[in-house]
């Protein structure tokens, strides 16, 4: 019989279906080969070891629109090149997080250049689709980079436990600021996003949150995970009671977990592809506005641009006026 603290356990192949304030999360894991001169794969895919997604030369997602929600992209391995209709661009990789609030509309692209020519280019990332409040859906789009050098880590048991605080807080550690028009920005919304690594046999306790919160645990790497005395197999999503402490313990291998919790927004959701609003009427109006304006137009010479191989990690803001390098922060 399932433990009473566990509401559901669902196997996951790619998409994690979540609940308010989250929409869903995609887990991309691709075993890209060595790259060619154009930063694409040297060899074609076999046995679906990787996806080109919508890229023709470089894998990724060329120019496309979003409005009314947030994308939170957590890169565990690999490189992402970002361009948007605000005139901003950047490259992030290996432990960095991009938090984009799409507000009243933006176009962007996410491409996965294969930098290494002499060895494989594995890519693993999570992209969380996170909802916005009705008021936040009206704001201008914005984004922020959370560089790996700055993301708080909570470690314990001589490094046997490592918990990265992407959003919210854990004990006395507080996450970096999110974009100002994010539902996750106010502390009272208790949006906690953690990436947890447990050495074999190690355990960690997640404190209780409120009874009204949504709470999920995704076990994505390892042999097994014990969640409040219930054994969970790898690649399973667990929905949990929010207002109690939860104990996690790794099996005989290192375990990795994505932890998601937060207060629901509680507004109606009307979703059509990459547009997430509160009614069909609002959706129709947003599509009309996109057809008329393309959310500001696309200022880049290609729908799928990438940087040169040698480009270091960076981000630009304010239409490209301000440039940020994590090494200089």
Structure notes:
- The chain is mainly beta.
- It folds into two domains: 1-12 and 152-267, Sandwich (Jelly Rolls), CATH 2.60.120; 22-150 and 268-305, Jelly Rolls (Sandwich).
- Helices cover 4% and strands 45% of the residues.
- The protein contains one helix and 27 strands.
- The longest helix is centred in the last third of the chain and has 14 residues, at 280-293.
- It starts with 5 loop residues before the first strand and ends in a 5-residue tail after the last strand.
Q: What structural class do you assign from the helix and strand content?
A: mainly beta
What radius of gyration results from the CA coordinates? 20 Å
Q: Distance between termini?
A: 51 Å
Number of extended strands: 27
Give the count of helical stretches: 1
Strand content bin: 35-45%
Detail the poorly predicted runs: none
Structural domain tally = 2
CATH architecture of the largest domain: Sandwich
What is the helix fraction of residues, given as a range?
under 10%
Mean pLDDT: 96
- SSE arrangement, N to C: EEEEEEEEEEEEEEEEEEEEEEEEEHEE
Biggest β-sheet description: 7 strands, antiparallel
Name of the CATH homologous superfamily of the largest domain = Jelly Rolls
Output the CATH class name of the largest domain. Answer: Mainly Beta
The strand line-up of the biggest sheet is 1-21-18-23-16-13-12
Q: What gross morphology would you assign?
A: globular
């Amino acid at each position: 019989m399932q433990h009473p603290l566990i509401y559901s356990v669902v196997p996951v192949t790619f998409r994690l279906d979540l609940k308010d304030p989250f929409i869903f999360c995609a887990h991309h894991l691709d075993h890209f080969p060595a790259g060619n001169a154009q930063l694409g794969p040297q060899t074609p895919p076999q046995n679906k070891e990787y996806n080109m997604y919508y890229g023709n030369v470089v894998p990724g997602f060329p120019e496309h629109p979003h409005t009314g929600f947030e994308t939170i992209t957590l890169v565990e391995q690999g490189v992402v090149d970002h361009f948007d209709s605000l005139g901003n661009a950047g490259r992030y990789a290996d432990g960095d997080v991009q938090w984009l609030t799409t507000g009243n509309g933006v176009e962007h692209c996410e491409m996965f250049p294969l930098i290494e020519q002499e060895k494989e280019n594995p890519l693993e990332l999570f992209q969380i689709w996170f909802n916005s409040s009705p008021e936040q859906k009206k704001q201008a789009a914005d984004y922020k980079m959370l560089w790996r050098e700055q993301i708080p880590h909570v470690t314990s048991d001589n490094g046997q436990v490592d918990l990265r605080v992407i959003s919210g807080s854990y004990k006395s550690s507080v996450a970096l600021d999110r974009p100002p028009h994010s539902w996750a920005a106010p502390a009272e919304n208790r949006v906690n996003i953690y990436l947890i690594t447990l050495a074999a046999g190690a355990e960690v306790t997640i404190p209780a949150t409120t009874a009204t919160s949504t709470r999920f645990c995704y076990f994505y790497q390892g042999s097994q995970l014990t969640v409040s005395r219930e054994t969970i197999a790898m690649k399973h999503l667990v929905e949990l009671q929010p207002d109690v402490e939860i104990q996690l313990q790794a099996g005989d291998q290192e375990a990795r977990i994505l932890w998601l919790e937060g207060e629901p927004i509680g507004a109606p959701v009307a979703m059509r592809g990459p547009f997430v609003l509160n009614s069909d009427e609002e959706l129709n109006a947003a599509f009309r506005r996109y057809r008329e304006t393309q959310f500001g137009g696309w200022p880049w010479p290609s729908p799928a641009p990438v940087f040169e191989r040698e480009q270091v990690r960076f981000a630009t803001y304010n239409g490209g006026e301000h440039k940020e390098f994590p090494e200089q922060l």
